[in-house]
């Protein structure tokens, strides 16, 4: 993925300023910056949810538009659906019922898989959202502070799951936790003064 000369302002507030960077197709990157520096804005532009004022995002190794999956700061799950049903929304017929159950069982207790998501704890919702992003057919996986609300053991288990399911895809994780870089085996990318370094 190549970001070229991205600019984004809100009124007089410049968030991105000539932001350029080249990401390896199968790389793992941790994006770090203070709160309010523009991490979420950058991720939303990459995902096509927001337009940059100038610049471009491209995937030169693909001959088609990139497929992307995401974990947002808010879980964005269908609260009345079960974890099983939430995964089925993104997998379609590519995974059968048993395969979906097996995927979720890596991160969630069996008894939670058929309950409405609204009845699950915050940490269980996070893990459902992560599992959904990893099982979606995608070229790029974007995660915005995905480990919020997870204790250390659960976080390590979740990161192990992510690494086992990355399958040569580009993974970009925004985080405030320096230890996530080594746990993910990631390259650090810092957003400073509207630029990636």
Give an account of the 3D structure.
The chain has 197 residues and is an alpha/beta fold. The chain has one domain: P-loop containing nucleotide triphosphate hydrolases (Rossmann fold, 3-Layer(aba) Sandwich), CATH 3.40.50. It is built from 6 helices and 9 strands, in the order βββαββαααβαβαββ. It has helices at 39-46, 83-91, 97-105, 122-135, 152-165, 179-184, and strands at 2-10, 13-22, 28-32, 54-58, 68-71, 140-144, 170-174, 187-192, 195-196. It has a 6-stranded mixed beta sheet, sandwiched between helices. A 3-stranded antiparallel beta sheet has the order 2-1-4, covered by helices on one side. The longest helix has 14 residues, at 122-135. The protein is globular.
Lay out the secondary structure.
Elements: E1 2-10, E2 13-22, E3 28-32, H1 39-46, E4 54-58, E5 68-71, H2 83-91, H3 97-105, H4 122-135, E6 140-144, H5 152-165, E7 170-174, H6 179-184, E8 187-192, E9 195-196
Parallel strand pairs: 3-7, 3-8, 5-6, 6-7
Antiparallel strand pairs: 1-2, 1-4, 8-9
Helix pairs in contact: 2-3, 2-4
> What's the CATH class label?
Alpha Beta
Radius of gyration: 17 Å
At CATH level 2, the architecture is 3-Layer(aba) Sandwich
Give me the secondary-structure category. Answer: alpha/beta
The main sheet orders its strands as 5-6-7-3-8-9
**Which sheet architecture does the biggest sheet show?**
6 strands, mixed
CATH level-3 fold name: Rossmann fold
Low-confidence parts, pLDDT < 50 over ≥5 residues? none
